[in-house]
Write a structure and sequence with these properties.
This protein is an alpha+beta fold. Helix content is 19%, strand content 33%. A hairpin with a 5-residue loop joins strand 1 and strand 2 (41-46). It comes from Streptomyces longispororuber.
Length: 192
């Protein structure tokens, strides 16, 4: 593993003290926040440059029932999701799996996946990609796309750069709709 001799001086990349060789500290309040329109957002914790390519990490909060990412895969990296709070629907190689607070999901390179807050719930996730890819600009672009300031197609030429390879989302949308319908039916049965 590479030694983290020093961290770059920009928010979210481990800036701040202490700077100890072999360690990287990201002090509270030093990360960049990219807001999303559903009330959530990305907190950009550390990019690959700051870790010698070992990993990249962000914290993602999702509003009630909000999508986190549509179907995609990573060709080179493994992605780890730790559900810090709430409930998340993961679409893993065509199967919908719901994971609650404290759960962990690890997605191997090449595995199609998508995720979002479960219907009727919010979510808070720690997301780690290893080996890391410099993706802070990707998350900034996603924020602009979500706010309607930039078209999604602007990301298509960048798939190799960010190791995010987009896939058709029809099955994901159908699975989410079916899961959401089940939640609505369950709520209706509980209503007085």
């Amino acid at each position: 593993m590479s030694r983290y001799a020093h961290a770059p001086d920009h928010p979210g990349a481990g800036g701040g003290s202490p700077r100890t060789p072999g360690a990287l500290v990201v002090p509270p309040g030093t990360t960049e926040h990219v807001p999303l329109p559903h009330g959530g957002g990305f907190d950009l914790l550390v990019d690959a440059t700051a870790t010698g390519g070992a990993l990249g990490a962000n914290r993602l909060t999702l509003g009630e029932g909000a999508d986190g990412a549509g179907p995609h895969h990573h060709a080179r990296s493994t992605e780890l999701f730790h559900v810090l709070d709430g409930t998340v629907d993961f679409f893993l190689d065509g199967e919908l799996v719901t994971v609650g607070r404290g759960g962990l999901v690890v997605v191997a390179p090449g595995t199609p996946h998508a995720f979002g807050a479960a219907a009727g719930d919010t979510a808070d996730l720690l997301v780690v990609l290893a080996p890391g890819v410099d993706r802070f600009d990707y998350f900034r672009t996603l924020g602009r796309v979500q706010h309607g300031l930039e078209p999604f197609d602007s990301l298509l030429p960048q798939q190799d750069r960010y190791d995010v390879h987009f896939l058709d989302g029809a099955d994901w949308r159908a699975a989410r709709a079916a899961a959401s319908g089940g939640v609505q039916r369950a709520k209706a049965r509980r209503a007085p």
